[in-house]
Write a structure and sequence with these properties.
heterodimer; A: 491 residues; alpha+beta; 4-stranded antiparallel sheet; 45% helix; B: 307 residues; alpha/beta; Rossmann fold; Alpha-Beta Plaits; 6-stranded mixed sheet; 27% strand
Chain lengths: 491, 307
């Protein structure tokens, strides 16, 4: 068996490696799934609530219906709603289908109503459909006609694909007429000039039917979208199923919102940094200890060192095995995240971005691993090697911002968080921290570096392709190179 | 053949040398015993010779190749068996031996056949599926010998290998080392068990506080140190001791007596025998010789009368 293969196999099949790979891939997949379904990372459509209001007359009673749903069209349950009718408040919560109803007894065909709706939700924002918002008074229920509310919402789990949410109620104690929904995609510039394309179905130009609406109805209408629709504007029209006459239309809208690559990279990287900032240093530190430091300090490596091989070769082989195991964890987990988030962003990040992220975190892992290897070379005590690794993780990874920025710079040296020099100093401090490389590397991609309470253009704090490349190369190579050199001359 | 020239090792600043200017040859077809007290520098010497640690000065040539400058080539002819073998505890023995074999370019079926042969030779084949952490110390030592033999090296270094072995183990090790010698290999054996060194070594090198102080040929072993008279007297009593006290200081163990600090020329030793016989003592054994390796060794390293 080739010795390098044995080292790779031993590291990759080690319980610790397998556990960490499972944890990293698992948490990444879970996080990506959660992000795509809840939209954390952006203002989440799932945190925007909409409330449609409609009414119908039946057996001498006016029924006022509210329907609350989120930006993905999912009914919102147990949301407090205050319905104001003629200065009387009816308080309740939306039921399991998102509805809250109130009624007003009257056999009059026309009554004045002072009505309003308050949605007391904890959502980041909520919208009550125009025409029934609170304080809009003297709405008349007389001769109520069919209420067809159309709301533009996001397709489930997507930040870029939109669809229509329909809410169809009324009118007077009778069944709502059946409507057919048609859409047409137009080039954005052409569509902008026209609200709709005909009063009659027969005169509408080549529209495509996507569904029907009738009776009491809540549903969503999803126009099939492809990446070619990025420059399209969509018109939605409803025609009476019997007469083919136009009933209503929804103004031209873009159903496909393009997310820029930089924006997507930035969001994905921020999400991954949260996970990898914890897991990657742990994997690098403990793998280096378990598969090199411990063997070296306990004397296990001596039985290898007497073979026809140099100690520097053993060192390189073990280091490569550790880095490869982290590389595999990164490639799998970032690929999984990219696939899961593709629905959310409407596109996958290109492979160059994926491997860019892998490269950034590999530099971080090589830096931590290199320092543990170096400590193993300098000390024969297992406790020292492990202790240095743990202290390094705590200081560089967990307390750096608090210790260095908050305590040292702002408190001891009285540097203002708003001072222009703070950006430069923070960038330098990130550069000398093995965990900080991911911050400056991502700033290079996004063009913005955040320090203190300020954001700076990356180039103004010295973050350029050259400086980031130099810092990356130093962290990638120097700790290992020193260790390699020492292994050839010192023992 | 291993040639050690001017070998020195200082582990840290302000430390006395662990070994200092050692010169030693271990010839092909020879077993060289290496004796010294704890901390004398035996293990340091062997670890340098195996390429585990670097020397501070001097060099070790293994069949003409410098163990530092030509580590890979030189190590092909080194087989090292430590006192306490230390392997990856969770490794399976066959897989680990395949890993080691890879360094010698032995792969695939050839490696498997060799490993099976060696493990069977050292009676650990039945335990091939056990993890090494479940091996006893004796099994680990046998595994270590099998591992040392993988590349069929020309030179073997045994560092206190006899320690911890049961009598059967010691006997089989002795037989194994003599076979290596017969096969023309050079064997460097460090041990506290001086009688074993006497039994197998062609020469014995004695090291004290990092310095080589004596190299003994096998022929010198019987006459080492001060001359003593060893007797066995069937009807030993106070009268016999009074006779012996005229010639030296008798030490009595049962019927055996060792007469030390002789006050006469050893060539006249027969007069003691004559006087005992005249006094009607039955002398079963009478031998004039050196005091033995152990006594000589302790005299030499200055530890006589307590370690």
């Amino acid at each position: 068996m080739s010795p390098i293969l044995y080292d790779l196999r031993r590291t990759l099949t080690g319980k610790f490696t397998i556990l960490l790979i499972i944890l990293i891939v698992g948490f990444t997949a879970l996080g990506a799934y959660t992000m795509s379904s809840s939209g954390s990372g952006h203002t989440s459509p799932g945190n925007i609530y909409h409330t449609d209001v409609g009414y119908y007359h039946s057996n001498g009673t006016y029924h006022i219906v509210t329907y609350t749903f989120d930006g993905y069209g999912t009914p919102v349950i147990n949301t407090p709603i205050s319905l104001s009718v003629n200065k009387t408040f009816y308080n309740g919560t939306s039921n399991s289908a998102g509805f809250y109803n109130s009624s007003l007894k009257s056999n009059e065909s026309r009554i004045p109503v002072d009505a309003g709706v308050i949605v007391n939700a904890s959502a980041s924002s909520f919208l009550v459909e125009p025409g029934f918002a609170f304080m809009q008074t003297n709405m008349s229920l007389i001769n109520a006609t069919t209420s067809l509310r159309i709301t533009l919402i996001n397709q489930p789990g997507s930040l870029v694909y939109k669809m229509y949410n329909l809410f169809y109620v009324g009118p007077n104690d009778s069944r709502s007429p059946q409507l057919n929904a048609y859409y047409k995609a137009y080039n954005s510039s052409a569509a902008a000039t026209k609200a709709y394309y005909g009063n009659n179905l027969s005169t509408s130009a080549n529209m495509t039917r996507i569904g029907a609406v009738g009776d009491f109805y809540t549903s969503s209408l999803k126009v099939p979208l492809t990446t070619s629709n990025q420059n399209s504007t969509f018109v939605l029209e409803f025609f009476n199923a019997t007469t083919d006459k136009l009933v209503t239309s929804y103004p031209p809208v873009d159903l496909y919102t393009h997310i820029s690559r930089v924006n997507q990279f930035s969001t994905v990287f921020a999400f991954l940094s949260g996970l990898y900032g914890f897991f990657i240093p742990i994997m690098a530190i403990f793998s280096s200890y378990l598969y090199y430091g411990k063997d070296r300090t306990s004397g296990v490596l001596e039985s290898v060192a007497t073979r026809p091989v140099t100690k520097s070769r053993i060192l390189a082989s073990r280091f490569a095995a550790v880095i490869l195991s982290i590389f595999i964890a990164l490639v799998i987990s970032i690929s999984v995240a990219n696939i899961l988030l593709a629905q959310y962003f409407g596109q996958m990040l290109p492979l160059s971005d994926v491997f860019g992220m892998v490269g950034i975190f590999l530099v971080v892992s090589a830096a931590f691993a290199g320092i543990v290897f170096l400590t193993s070379q300098l000390s024969r005590a297992q406790g020292t090697v492990l202790g240095v690794g743990i202290v390094m993780f705590i200081v560089f990874d967990m307390l750096w911002t608090f210790l260095i920025l908050d305590l040292l710079l702002f408190y001891v040296f009285k540097l203002s968080p708003l001072a222009p020099s703070t950006g430069v100093v923070t960038a330098i401090l990130d550069a000398i921290n093995p965990a900080g490389f991911s911050s400056i590397a991502s700033s290079l991609v996004t063009g913005t570096f955040t320090a203190g309470f300020n954001s700076y253009p990356a180039s103004t704090v010295g973050i350029t392709m050259v400086s980031v490349s130099i810092v990356g190369a130093i962290w990638l190579i120097v700790p290992f190179a020193i260790t390699y050199y020492l292994s050839r001359i010192r023992d | 053949m291993i040639e050690i020239r001017g070998l020195s090792k200082i582990y840290g600043r302000n430390q006395i040398p662990a070994i200092n200017n050692i010169d030693l040859d271990i010839n092909d077809g020879e077993i060289l015993g290496f004796a010294g007290l704890n901390g004398a520098g035996k293990t340091t010497t062997i670890r340098i010779a195996c390429g585990i640690i670097f020397p501070t000065g001097g060099k070790v040539n293994v069949d003409g190749l410098d163990i530092v400058k030509n580590k890979v080539s030189a190590s092909k002819n080194i087989g090292w068996v430590p006192e306490l073998p230390n392997f990856e505890p969770n490794a399976k023995p066959v897989l680990l031996l395949k890993y080691y074999a890879g360094f010698y370019g032995i792969k695939g079926g050839e490696a498997e056949d060799l490993i099976e042969k060696l493990m069977k030779q050292f009676n650990i084949w039945e335990a091939r599926n056990k993890k090494l952490k479940n091996y006893s110390q004796g099994m680990k030592k046998r595994f270590s010998i099998a591992a040392a033999m993988l590349g069929d090296p020309k030179n073997y270094l045994f560092d206190e290998t006899l320690n911890g072995l049961d009598p059967e183990g010691v006997k089989s090790m002795r037989k194994f080392m003599l076979q290596l010698k017969k096969d023309g290999k050079s064997v460097f054996l460090s041990s506290h068990i001086l009688t074993e060194l006497e039994n197998v070594a062609d020469r014995i090198a004695i090291i004290k506080r990092g310095e080589l102080i004596k190299i003994l040929d096998r022929d010198e072993l019987p006459n080492l140190g001060k001359t003593v008279v060893k007797l066995k007297i069937e009807n030993i009593d106070g009268g016999a001791l009074r006779i012996l006290e005229k010639y030296g200081t008798p030490e009595v163990i049962g019927k055996d007596v060792i007469l030390k600090d002789l006050s006469f020329n050893s060539s006249d030793a027969h007069t003691i025998n004559n006087e005992l016989i005249k006094a009607n003592y039955e002398v079963l054994k009478f031998d004039v010789s050196g005091e033995g390796l152990e006594e000589y060794f302790l005299d030499l390293v200055g530890q006589k009368g307590g370690m």
